[in-house]
Amino acid sequence: MNSNTLILHTAALAIMPLQLMFSVFLLLRGHDEPGGGFIGGLVAASAFVLYAFAFGARPTRRLMRVNPRDLLAAGLLFGLASTLPALLSGQPMLTAHWWQLPLPGEGYLKLSTVLIFDIGVYLAVLGTLMTFVIGLMESGE
Amino acid sequence: MMLLAVLSGFLLAIAVPVLYRLAGNYIGWVLALLPASLTGYFLNLIPSITGGQTLVIEHQWMPSLGVSLDFMVDGLSLVFALLISAIGTFILIYAGSYLKGHRDLGRFYVIMLSFMASMLGLVLSDNLITFFVFWELTSITSYLLIGFNHEDAEARKFALQGLFVTAGGGLVLMAGLILLIFMTGSYSFSDILASDQPLHEHSYYVGATVCILIGAFTKSAQVPFHFWLPNAMAAPTPVSAFLHSATMVKAGVYLLARLNSSMGEHELWSNALMFFGAATMLTGAYLAFSSTGIKKVLAYSTIMALGTLTMLIGVGTEKATTAFICFLVAHSLYKGALFMIAGALDHETGTKDITRMGGLRRAMPNTAIITCLAALSLAGLPPLFGFVAKELLLESLLQSPSWSLVLVTMAVVASMLVVAVAGIVFIKPFFGPISTTPKHPHEAPFAMLVGPAVLSVIALVFGVAPFLPGALVLDAAVSSIYGNSVETALALWHGVNVPLMLSAVSLLAGTMLFASWHKLQPALDTVNSSVSRVGPEAGYFRFMLGITQVASWQTRLLQNGVLGIYLVTLVLVTFGLVGYTLLTRHGLDLSFDFSNGYFYEFGIALLIVASTVFASVTSSRLGSVASVGVQGFGVALIFIHFSAPDLGITQLLVETLTVILLVLVLFRLPPFVSLSSPLERSRDLTVAVFAGTVMTLLMLAVLDIQYFESISSYYIENSYELAFGKNIVNVILVDFRQLDTLGEIFVLGLAALGVYSMLKLKAEEQHKP
Description:
The complex is a heterodimer of chains A (141) and B (769). Chain A is mainly alpha-helical.
């Protein structure tokens, strides 16, 4: 599938990066405000889907550089990796760990295994959806 | 440290591919360093155990489920751990030479190390659930090992047979263990052993005992489940040597010994063990005597040994427990050695059939000496440890509180047959006229002889100085099985007594049996082939056939490939049951109160209804998909209206992407044609209306039904306190219920792989000419 409308091409090029940025924003703020890995992943996927509708499956693959299935695998690995700090420190599996890094000026950076896990969810959702979409599009080409 | 000791096998297994590339042909020696150092570690623990003490090492795993990686070291588990790691060392060295240059040597070591680690975990676990996990891991890894030559249909068939019997028994065992947990209220062996509550008075006792016995009997190949063990010979010889001497098949015996002091105070337990043990002992001895393949002979004699061990636990006296441990150690030593020699013979002569071997002692003098030692131990002759064990066996049976005469007679007959078997294994291949073998025989390489040599020498040392193993760890082991502190006094020479005379009788009779082995063989063959038509193995194959038939019958009935039927069945069953429960448990309450609804709430409801109706009546596919999307957006609006922004956003995004995916799929479909008759459509309509009604009633009822206290207040209070997050939805997803989410993303992954392979396979099919 490859549509040749100029409007869609231009819009996709302009909107896609914004959508991706927005998805990362959603991912990072998810713990305190609406958002999170699942929603972020969905937004990121819709960004790539928009691009795929405008330019086709193969250019999307090239743009992503990574195979969607590898993204999915990476997501699952991140999910599992987030359980390691607890295991290594002898706590029950899945106990959350928090690290607070002070930032220049006021405030601090909140890092946690929960964030790693959220990133895992983000990648898994993105990888799954892109596997679907690219697979379906390529099967038609 | 203990955690590392148990799991190091798995860790090393991961590193095997890299090590194999680095070490090449020396891979066996390199990998053997691990079990060798584990042996050292376990030897190190002996001083702290000999006092009859029990070490419990705790590691949390899933505490809220009662599952932990706790390990318990007492005499019994230490004996097993030592056997596993010591014999494992030689097996790994041996395998490197036996399978030298094999295409899959790396894969072999990966599975072998995992097998070893699972077995170590099994004997050291304190937690019943962890124990069960390791128990099933040994079933799975042994399945992979038996089917190692996976291009051979026979190997695959027998691997599956072993898996079916042992893993099937494992499921029964799980039921038994769960009952045991209910009975004692504890998940750990150490608690169960330490408590003095009489288990046999509990009403679950019989059920738990039967389940645990079935689990242990399948694993340890007791009659009538014995048929899988000789078939497991399809595995490469190093596996058989390990499986028979130190691992897997001993797991069942281990479990029986482990639970003996808690569950053994009942006649059901002891009689079952004595009966099945004695039956297995005789069956194994007879079948060993009547086989001609060297590995089959050894395999059946293992069954005989396992039966003897089970029977000894059943007898349960102090003497019998001592005999149990000695017999276990003696058997592990000679059986490990003999299997490795069998592999060497097969490797150097090219045949497994003993009747085709003869006069090998000139070509393989070292092998002959080692075999001589091991076979003497098997036959139970002085001064080897096998003799000590057999004397103890006979003595304890003579003193057995029940069935003494029967058991002694059976044991004497069995040991007669075993003497003949030892003769077959040793004299047949090495003496007599030289027969031509497929390969020109010569001495086996060093790596293949070092294991059997060391094991036989240990058997000799233990035989000459039987106080040595006793003082080391056997006393502690006997104490932990018997439940009270026991001092064993092992001796090679007890003077001329009844057991010695019985030994002499069996030796004489065994020699005569051996002499007439050739003449008896045809007659035994006829008997065996006529028995095998009605035996348990035939039963197994009939059972498997039956399963296939039932499966194909129910597949024709339920999974006939028509999606519509699936949906109708699923929906009717689910909503029928839900509706029934709703009506009987809750009753219907149809008083609705619309008075405080806003006009736009009604608007959204109307929108949803309208789009649903449109979706089901339109003849345009795209229109139908789009209106389903509209319906989803309506639901999203409701979420947002009732201030659940997270759900709203998710719903919107999911709806959008679903519509896109549906459109992508719809493009591939053939043009709209009428696929269903009016009758079918009215059936579908009825089912749909029914399901919708039940669902609506359920949603209305949910507001009233409150079986448990609502959990949401806990989340509201604690989401910032415990998880530092203000967004409760996200906190629940990634923190409080993280395990669920983890499971869900794995489900996503599976779904993606499923869709991918479906599309991919379809594409490949189309590309075929």
